[in-house]
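Running this now, will post back.
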Amino acid sequence: MLPDPIEAKDLNIYGAAELPWSRARKALETSIALQETAQFLSTVGPDGRPHTTGIGALAHNGYLYFTSGPGTRKSHNLATNPACTLSFRVPEVDLVFEGEAQRSTDPAELDAVTARYRESGWPAERSGDAITAPYSAQSAGPAPWHLYRCTIHTAVGVGTAEPYGATRWRFA
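Update: finished.
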């Protein structure tokens, strides 16, 4: 479950009401593990250039998680600048989360998150301080993969079905 925001700001310019966070959270939490859910991570390289790539994320204990191989551009970018965005197209709302991603090496956290990945259909296992599986996204690089925990600072949601609206939420 993702945390509740501490503040919401209506961004809609067409008169629709503010999007309730409960609607966005429910849409994300029920759709994030589905293969058809579009998910993207954006990072910034040392030279200031943006980098965006598809990922397989999940929500657990108030955080968003994703994996990445240690030799990938996204992992190199996060090592020097943990700021990132995670974008999702889920039913009825597009969501963009801004936050900071840190690698997790905690065995209990790795075990809990790999269990969640297995529940979603990806046969992930903890291997030391990383994750392995028979396969992953091609953009993840070869196994083992590092686990990243994203602490959310803000999110923007835009309704793609009635009732429409646009809202920015700020988190503690």
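Helices lie at 21-31, 73-80, 107-119. More later if anyone needs it.
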